[in-house]
Amino acid sequence: MLTRDALAFAEEQELDLVEVAPNAEPPVCRLMDYGKYLYEKQKRERESRKAQKVIEVKEVRLRPKTDEHDIQVVLTKIRKFAKEGAKIRVRIRFRGREIYHPEVAQDLMERVAGDVSDVVTVEARPVLDGRSMVMLLSPTG
After folding, report:
1. Nearest in space to 90 (alpha carbons), one of 56, 127, 118
2. CATH architecture of the domain with residue range 3-51
3. Which of 37, 108, 35 is closest to 72 using CA atoms?
């Protein structure tokens, strides 16, 4: 069909002539209410954004010399964050010469992971990152 005939037919029907596949031979066009199409497309996008769940990453910080009570407080926070469905980044920061004894931080990380293993799983093992050691935990089911 010629373009001018298609345009005339679309005008007759009070619709828009929309080019769907411009690279096809011959180009493919479609009759539609373009404003309504854009509105419904935006509506679908809004609905899909509502359905998406954004995974939050919470962070707890420790030091290699952290006291027992403070560790218990951090474990409570980890349990709370996991219950909310957030991932948890555990970071042990080194100051001064503490960096020369990463095994202390490694043991602390393993202890933390073991103590909260009922509510979280280790997603990323402890890794030395500059002057800190980082481990990522994710909530189970």
Report:
1. 127
2. Roll (3.10)
3. 108
pLDDT band at 108 (very low <50, low <70, confident <90, very high): very high
Residue range 57-139 forms a domain whose CATH class is alpha beta
Q: What is the pLDDT of residues 49-97, one digit of tens each?
A: 888 777 889 999 999 999 999 999 999 999 999 998 899 999 999 999 9
What is the distance of C-alpha 53 from the center of its chain? 8
**What SS3 state is found at 95?**
coil
Q: Quick one: tokens of 140?
A: 């189970």
- The DSSP line for 37-59 is HHHHHHHHHHHHHHH--PPPEEE
pTM for this entry: 0.62
106 pLDDT more than 90:
yes
Within the chain, strands assigned E span: 16-21, 28-32, 57-62, 87-93, 120-129, 132-139
- The CA distance from 9 to 3, in Å, is 10
Q: CA 98, CA 133: separation in Å to the nearest integer?
A: 12
Give the residue extent of every domain in the chain.
3-51, 57-139
